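Tokens for chain A. Residues wanted.
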């Protein structure tokens, strides 16, 4: 599984380019300036959108909820402080994004869930689901840390793929801008997690 996830992540980085910001511990800004760096309020989406925008946002709502569940598990169970910091940063960011995306769907009059076949129609089932998260709960110590990093690397790689599709097909300016941010930040996260995986 480790080799599979690394291969997936490497392919995503090659497709999207190797740029991107590394994630930082909770409470710091994107460039590590500390908790006093005020983040701008999340933008409200305009009413101009197409089906690609709706599909992307609905898929990201599901994606973010699973990522939050996994990151909260790692915040409680990870043994390395670096892993806990990674999980904390992901949890904070994705909770903020989830609230924003839900507000966009409400504005558009669209449901938060896109239906059982949403992922199947767009490349198959996600790598992460409730069963996988429950199975991960049974691990401990270094085995848990490695499992978390592998799963989250693949999970964030899927976010990059979804974001690249939205950038190509979407119409709503706020949604395509968000997709650009997702592609950049998740690439940085993947690079940081791959480095952590390779370390003893």
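Reply:
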């Amino acid at each position: 599984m480790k080799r599979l996830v690394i291969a997936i992540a490497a392919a995503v980085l090659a497709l999207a380019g190797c740029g991107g910001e590394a994630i930082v511990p909770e409470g710091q800004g994107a460039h590590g300036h500390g908790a006093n760096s005020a983040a701008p309020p999340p933008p409200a989406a305009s009413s101009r959108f197409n089906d690609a925008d709706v599909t992307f946002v609905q898929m990201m709502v599901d994606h973010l909820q699973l990522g939050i569940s996994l990151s909260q598990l790692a915040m409680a169970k990870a043994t390395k402080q670096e892993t806990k910091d990674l999980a904390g940063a992901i949890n904070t960011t994705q909770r903020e994004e989830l609230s924003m995306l839900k507000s966009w769907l409400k504005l558009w009059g669209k449901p938060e869930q896109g239906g059982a076949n949403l992922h199947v129609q767009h490349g198959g089932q996600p790598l992460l689901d409730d069963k996988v998260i429950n199975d991960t709960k049974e691990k401990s110590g270094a085995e848990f840390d490695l499992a978390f990093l592998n799963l989250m690397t693949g999970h964030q790689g899927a976010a990059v793929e979804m974001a690249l599709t939205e950038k190509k097909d979407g119409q709503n300016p706020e949604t395509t801008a968000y997709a650009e941010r997702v592609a950049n930040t998740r690439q940085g996260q993947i690079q940081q997690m791959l480095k952590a995986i390779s370390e003893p």
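The helical segments are 2-16, 51-77, 81-108, 130-137, 141-169, 173-198. The two ends are 17 Å apart (CA to CA).
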